[in-house]
C-alpha cells in the first residue's frame, strides 16, 4: 500500500466553544479523565519538545506526573539532552495524542524546576528498580553497550540497598502554560481547534482554522 493513501475519517466527537470549559486546565482535566476512563494506551504519555542553543529542535516521550493551576509536572535526568537544552532555553512545548479519541492537546510555556522537596517526595514514591535506574543510566550519553547499565544497576543496588537517595541530577520540571490548543478530529478534515492564550491575567479562547 502507498503510505500516501492511508486516510481516516474522524467522526467520533466535536468541540464547540459553548461545550468547552472557559479555563484550559479544566478542559484538559476533562479530556484526560475521558482518556483514562476510555482505557486508551498510556493516556499519561506526552511528547516534550525543546530547542537547543543551535536552534535545532528535539522531541521525546515522557509521562505526566501531576498538574494543577501552576502547570504540568514531569521528571527526568537534568543532565540529559532535554535538561541541557532547557538550561539554555527554558521555553518548551508538550503534546498529548489520544488516537482512539481523535484528540490532541498542545501546551506551550516556560519550564521551571520544581522544589527539591517535591522531587524528593516523588522519587521516594517510585518502585525500587526505578530509583536504582535513575542512578544507573547516564542519560543521553554514549555507552559501550547494555552491560554498562546492568553493571551500574548492580553497583548502585549494592551500595544503596533498599534506600537509594534521589540523585542530585534527577528531579522534576513544571511547564507553566501561556498557550493551550485542543484539537478534535472532524469529518472532511474540518477539524475543531480551540486555542487558549494567556493575556493580561485572563485566558482568551478562540477558534483556529484547522
What are the main properties of this structure?
210 residues; alpha+beta; Pnp Oxidase, Chain A; nine-stranded antiparallel sheet; 5 helices; 26% helix; globular
Description:
Strands 1, 2, 3, 4, 5, 6, 7, 8 and 9 form a nine-stranded antiparallel β-sheet that branches. The model has no long low-confidence stretch (mean pLDDT 97). A hairpin with a 2-residue loop joins strand 3 and strand 4. 26% of the residues lie in helices and 34% in strands. By secondary structure, the chain is of the alpha+beta class. Helix 4 packs across helix 5. The protein starts with 23 loop residues before the first helix and ends with a strand. It is globular, with a radius of gyration of 20 Å. 24% of the residues are buried. The chain contains five helices and nine strands; from the N terminus they run αββββαββαααβββ. It has two domains: 156 residues, Roll (Pnp Oxidase, Chain A); 39 residues, no CATH class.
Give the helices and strands, then pairings.
Elements: H1 24-37, E1 45-51, E2 57-63, E3 66-68, E4 71-77, H2 81-88, E5 91-98, E6 103-113, H3 116-123, H4 128-136, H5 146-160, E7 170-184, E8 192-199, E9 202-207
Antiparallel strand pairs: 1-2, 1-5, 3-4, 4-7, 5-6, 6-7, 7-8, 8-9
Helix pairs in contact: 4-5
The average pLDDT is: 97
First-last Cα distance: 27 Å
Label the overall shape: globular
| Structural domain count | 2
What's the level 1 CATH class of the largest domain? Answer: Mainly Beta
Amino acid at each position: 500500500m502507498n503510505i500516501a493513501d492511508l486516510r481516516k475519517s474522524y467522526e467520533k466527537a466535536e468541540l464547540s466553544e459553548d461545550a468547552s470549559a472557559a479555563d484550559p486546565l479544566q478542559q484538559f482535566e476533562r479530556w484526560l479523565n475521558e482518556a483514562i476512563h476510555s482505557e486508551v494506551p498510556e493516556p499519561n504519555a506526552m511528547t516534550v519538545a525543546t530547542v537547543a542553543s543551535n536552534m535545532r529542535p528535539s522531541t521525546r516521550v515522557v509521562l505526566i506526573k501531576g498538574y494543577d493551576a501552576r502547570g504540568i509536572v514531569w521528571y527526568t535526568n537534568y543532565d540529559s539532552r532535554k535538561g541541557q537544552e532547557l538550561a539554555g532555553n527554558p521555553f518548551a512545548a508538550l503534546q498529548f495524542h489520544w488516537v482512539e479519541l481523535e484528540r490532541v492537546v498542545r501546551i506551550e510555556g516556560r519550564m521551571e524546576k520544581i522544589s527539591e522537596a517535591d522531587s524528593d517526595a516523588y522519587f521516594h514514591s517510585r518502585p525500587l528498580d526505578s530509583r536504582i535506574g535513575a542512578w544507573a543510566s547516564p542519560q543521553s550519553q554514549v555507552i559501550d553497550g547494555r552491560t554498562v547499565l546492568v553493571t551500574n544497576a548492580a553497583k548502585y543496588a549494592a551500595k544503596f540497598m533498599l534506600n537509594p537517595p534521589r540523585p542530585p541530577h534527577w528531579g522534576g520540571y513544571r511547564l507553566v502554560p501561556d498557550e493551550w490548543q485542543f484539537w478534535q478530529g472532524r469529518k472532511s478534515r474540518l477539524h475543531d481547534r480551540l486555542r487558549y492564550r494567556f493575556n493580561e491575567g485572563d485566558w482568551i479562547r478562540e477558534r483556529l482554522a484547522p
